[in-house]
Amino acid sequence: MKKWQTLQKLHDNYLVAVVRGNSKEHAIAAVQQMIEGGIYNIEVTFTTPQAEQVIAELIKQNNDPKVVIGAGTVMDAVTARIAILNGAAYVVSPHFDSKIAEVCNMYSTPYLPGCGSVTEIVQAMTVGVDVVKLFPGDFLGPNFIKNVHGPIPDIALMPSGGVSIDNLAEWVEKGAYAVGIGSALLKGAKDGNDSIIKENTQAFVKKLEDVRG
What pLDDT sits at residue 130? Predict the structure, then answer.
C-alpha cells in the first residue's frame, strides 16, 4: 500500500523537482522555496553533497502529506538502501539496474529507472518497475511516449531532462505520468534562498493548471 500511495502522489502532484544542490544547506533551502512555490514531489540527487542527510532533514521539516521526498542519481543498490533508510519515498536512477530494483522491492519503495529504449523499458517491467523515467527527455521527445503506449499501453512514463514551460503541455498531452524538472527551477538564482526559485516554481505550477484547464 505504501508503494502505491507514493506512486499516486507522484502522479497527482505531477511536477517533480530534480534538485542538484551545491551543498547540503543550498539543497535544503532551494527545496523549501520549491515547496512554497507549489511543487511537492522532490527528487534529491546523490550528486548533492550529503544527499542522504538532505533527505532526512527535509522529511523532518515537512509534515504536509502532499510532500514526497525521494532520491535521484542513485547509481547502485548500496546507495538505494542508504537513501531508503534515510526516508526516501522513491528512488530514481539515470539507468536501469536490476539490483536497485531488488532493494526497492524489498522495502516496498518505487523504483524509477532511466530508460531510453523500448528494450530497456521491457527489461524494467520484468522486475516489477511501475513507472519508468524517460531519459534524456529532450533527446527522446514527447512523441516517444505516444509511440511506446501503442504496443505497451500500461507502462507509466515520466520524462526527465528537457522539460520546460514551453513544452509542458505537449508532455501532458502525450500521456506523461509525471515530469521531472531540473535546472529550470534554479534559473537566475544566486543561492538556495533566492526567491526567484519560488517564482520559477510558481510559473510551472500555473502553466500546469492552465494546461489541465
Answer: 96
**pLDDT number for residue 51:** 98
CB 62 within 8 A of CB 36: no
Residue 147, SS3? helix
Name the burial class of residue 153, with classes exposed (0-12), middle (13-18) and buried (19+) by CB atoms within 10 angstroms of its CB.
exposed
Instruction: Tell me if 196 sits within 8 A of 189, measured CB to CB.
Output: yes
Q: How far apart are CA 40 and CA 88, in angstroms?
A: 14
What strands, in cross-sheet order, belong to the sheet with 91-93? 156-159, 131-134, 111-115, 91-93, 68-72, 41-45, 15-19, 179-181
What confidence score (pLDDT) does residue 94 get? Answer: 97
Cell of 14: 505531477
Active site residues: 43, 133
Residue 213, pLDDT score: 87
Q: Which residues of the chain have pLDDT under 70?
A: none
For the chain, helix, strand, coil in percent to 5 are 50, 15, 35
For residue 129, the model assigns a pLDDT of 97
C-beta separation of 145 from 157 below 8 A: yes
Name residue 31's amino acid: V
